[in-house]
Amino acid sequence: MSKPxxxxxxxxxxxxxxxxxxxxxxxxxxxSLGTDQRTALIDAAVxxxxxxxxxxxxxxxxxxxxxxxxxxxxxxxxxxxxxVLCVFTEKWVLQQLIIGQPSYFDLLDRSLLLRGIxxxxxxxxxxxxxxxxxxxxxxxxxxxxxxEATQLAREAELTNLRQQLQPHxxxxxxxxxxxxxxxxxxxxxxxxxxxSDFLRGTVKKDDRPLVTLEEELSxxxxxxxxxxxxxxxxxxxxxxxSEGSTSLKLPYLLLQPVMENAIKFxxxxxxxxxxxxLSTKVEGNTLIIEVTNPFDASTASARPGTxxxxxxxxxxxxxxxxxxxxxxxxxxxxxxxxxxxxxxVL
Length: 346
What we know:
Elements: H1 8-32, H2 37-62, H3 69-97, H4 102-110, H5 112-183, H6 185-204, E1 210-212, H7 213-231, E2 235-240, E3 249-251, H8 255-267, E4 274-283, E5 286-294, H9 308-321, E6 327-331, E7 335-343
Helix pairs in contact: 1-2, 2-3, 2-5, 3-5, 5-6, 5-9, 6-7, 8-9
């Protein structure tokens, strides 16, 4: 993350102090060479003011140049030309302000080359510092644009995953409602109402990336009620929530595709009743959620489309937390286990 640039007021103050200090040094040298105090102060003030203006000029011009070897020759030419102009301007101004001091003007003429070299060094230093400032500023701006582009891409992908999730579940539910209308109309009406409540809750949470576990479980229960209408007595659920975990945060609608995956592989690959268990625990600063479902190893097989749920969950977790180790699956004694870790962002 790029740091905020130094304020313009601080840069201006530092620039003024820089030239005042050099003015003091110049006045001290002139007085040491026998120049009276008033003349030395006028000389120092005029000299440093002219070179300060030249430095500001090249500073302003440098913001239009991109750092490169070719442009460095233009900058070098600018600095030499400004130095020569400053020296002649300085001499002319001092001749108007200081009158009747031939010894001083003799010293001035003999020091013009030295003044020009000093001025050129100062102007070149300002050009280099400005060039560095422009370069760093452009790098910071480029990094900022990349970060913003990355953030927008992440948000777009998360939105796309959420938009895929809702139709995925909606189509399954509508197919079930269609199948129930003829044989069990009351259950079909109940399922329509539950589906309406589920979708309404989804819309309300659409602009919130994280919700509490309590809110997520409340919304998950609407989904489970719909599925229990579909599968009747065959589907049982056991939800075990550890103390202190209900206020922890997780991405909203994260558990629904995990439970959907467990229901599919639990009910489709087994006969009779099944129980799907969801349990939570807290380890340090991490909420751990475990979903287990039975499966028949002899009949279990992959089906087209069944991979969307866990894949979308893993992708969402990566986009939010930049980690690929937050979802894991395993099996033990005909029980399929899905484990999700949710870091709690402080």
